[in-house]
Specification:
By secondary structure, this protein is α/β, with parallel strands linked by helices. The protein is built from eight helices and eleven strands. The termini are far apart.
């Protein structure tokens, strides 16, 4: 294997300066409409929810995805073969070559190559599709009795989803944005926590360690001093970008360039993360 050295200048180039981002928000907060803040000619939406109604006037393209196997095929076409995998495995060189041959006349590979931003809507539905796939595999049945094995299905679900996400993350020159539902959980003592809504626990636990940035989208109102107060009945949308935030929302900023909250503009947010915009805190937190 030939090793490739990436210099500091190359790391800042368009081919290498990419971001992986997970955005979670409650239903109806407007996660999908964030597409409108991205360049339409450089973005493709992998639509797992059949939920493009809110952005029907967006001029970008989308690809409907009805099954986990379809998503996995798209991940291979986007990211290319994984040299660490067996050539005949799903992410191996032979599978990649077969997919290229299958789709040679469709133009899908050239189309995907021309898009630098992959918007996955949503990772919540991706895990549901992956669970439907996992329940049909041999691992989801007991070797002894032949009956369904729920633990086996969930184990396979976690492994498959994490592998697909990591494969997309390694796609050269691609910024990948995963959108998911944020669920409000109240325990028996009335304590409230916010958790990503996903099938299985493995993907939810490991996703923050895979992506560069984790952002929560929520509704806020201003208090008497001009600060932001989480208010599910308000109309101001904000992106919460820092861990340890006062609202207990999932967040992580590996770039170190974001404020505690940012406006709901993904184009501007990515520019800040990539260092293409000056750090000018315009909003008190």
């Amino acid at each position: 294997m030939a090793f490739r050295i990436i210099t500091a200048d190359e790391r800042l180039s368009a081919a290498e300066n990419k971001t992986s981002l997970a955005i979670f928000g409650p239903p109806g907060v407007g996660k999908t409409t964030l597409l409108k803040s991205l360049p339409a000619d450089e973005t493709v939406c992998l639509d797992l929810e059949a939920g493009m109604k809110s952005v029907q006037d967006w001029r970008g393209a989308s690809i409907p995805v009805r099954s986990f196997t379809d998503f996995r095929d798209l991940a291979v076409l986007i990211g290319g073969p994984d040299p660490a995998q067996h050539p005949q495995s799903w992410y191996g060189t032979e599978r990649h070559a077969w997919l290229q041959a299958q789709h040679r006349d469709s133009g899908i590979e050239a189309f995907l190559a021309a898009r630098r931003i992959i918007f996955v809507d949503s990772i919540t539905d991706l895990t549901r599709q992956a669970m439907a796939y996992a329940r049909q595999q041999p691992e989801a049945f007991s070797d002894r009795t032949g009956k369904p094995d729920v633990r086996g299905a969930y184990g396979l679900l976690g492994r498959e989803v994490i592998q697909a996400l990591k494969h997309l993350q390694h796609a050269r020159g691609k910024t990948v944005i995963f959108v998911g539902v944020l669920e409000k959980v109240t325990d028996d003592f009335g304590a409230v926590t916010w958790q990503p809504q996903m099938e299985g626990s493995k993907a939810g636990r490991e996703l923050p360690g895979i992506v560069d940035q984790v952002v929560s989208m929520q509704l806020f109102a201003r208090d008497a001093e001009g600060g932001w107060v989480l208010d599910e009945t308000a109309t101001d949308r904000r992106l919460v970008c820092k861990s340890g935030n006062p609202w207990g929302l999932p967040a992580k900023d590996r770039s170190g360039r974001l404020d505690l909250t940012e406006p709901p503009d993904l184009g501007a947010l990515l520019a800040r993360i990539d260092g293409r915009a000056s750090h000018q805190p315009a909003f008190a937190s």
